Sequence to fold (441 residues):
Amino acid sequence: MTTDAPTAAQAGLLACEACQMLSRPAASGMPEYCRRCGERLHFRHYGSIQKTWALIIAAGICYLPANMLPVMKTTTLGESEGDTILSGVAFLYATGSWPLALIVLVASVMIPLGKLVALAYLLLTVQYGSVKSNPERTRLYRLVELIGRWSMLDVFVATFTVAMVQLQPLMSVEPGAGVLFFAAVVVLTMLAAEVFDQRLIWDSAYPHTERHG
Amino acid sequence: MGSSVLTDSPLSSPVACPDCDLLQRIPVIPPGGKACCNRCGHVLARKPRGPRDLPLVLAVTAAIVFVVANTMPLMDLSVLGRSTSTTVIGGAIEMWKEGQQITGALVAFCAVIAPGCYVAFMLTLLLGARRSPVPVWVAAMLRWVHHFETWSMLEVMMLGILVALIKIAELATVHAGIGMYAVGALILLFPAIVVTFDVRELWRRVEWDHDDAFMAAAANAPVADTPG
Fold:
């Protein structure tokens, strides 16, 4: 490859995100589809920055009720008590299973917050045209993609606690409103990571890529 | 330069790194080896070792284990002589019945539908890939399988069940059921399929298959056409 066109976009080639095949776009300006697998082709995800911002703002809004509203309501002999994520962590810690308390704290509180901060940072550096620490920012993006699913942990904890503890009238557990917001945070941040086009991180180093986008 | 790029032999045709878009050629990889992007280190290709039918064998196993995992109880809980048990889908249904329909549907999707579709698609496309030429629908399925992999969260569910069990164990006696062991086996089988499956080799055969239809026209024209 020549050094003046190091990326596919600069060489005017569309890379298929499903099968990696390269195609040359037709001049007509029609939507392009991969010849081999039929995937829709883009130089960069359409409206990637706006859509990612919209999704992480929505996730940020849901993050507050997710942590403040109860995820489970335990009824023991007529007495009812709500459990938020943090009080669940406190319960696990108090009963002596601190490794699990730590896992739930990391998965439920720190990972979603970390994802929001990391994606906002990536969006800002892309928007300001940063050319610094590209390999590190790419690694940060991969980390966000890799660990994102683990914040679903508390939704599964609530689901299986509710499913198992149905011993009326002795004791029963109901899901609280927090679990819906919690699930929303997970889904919105996962979609945000999918919509964000990680190739934008490298584009600022070669500004003339824009004309292809 | 552009047209020669597209008509080169597929072994040495360039690829763009999915993470940084750098164009590069993937060298011939020895079995068990991998090729990483020159610039950002993304793993561009892997060459699995082991027999070619191994992923198919693993997918058949995964399909059987999946049925067991979803029909057998995950765990039994007993307290004061009363006992209950639940399956994977039972958890989602309980959530739905308790008024959390959206969460219930999401749990069903991540714990049953996405893994189920992943196994079904993988099994079908690996069977289809044995035929020559490779049927066109194999390419469409291969394109979809990645999405099901992203949303299949069996390992997260397993840890979630473990945390729930430890919370419940304070109040009642809990026994792990056959379903739990089956889910554990699936968690190992899914990555095993990914690691043993040579995706690039299959894509290359799909490309040969499409040769007549697409490549003939592309070879004559200086610039390759993409059907709109």
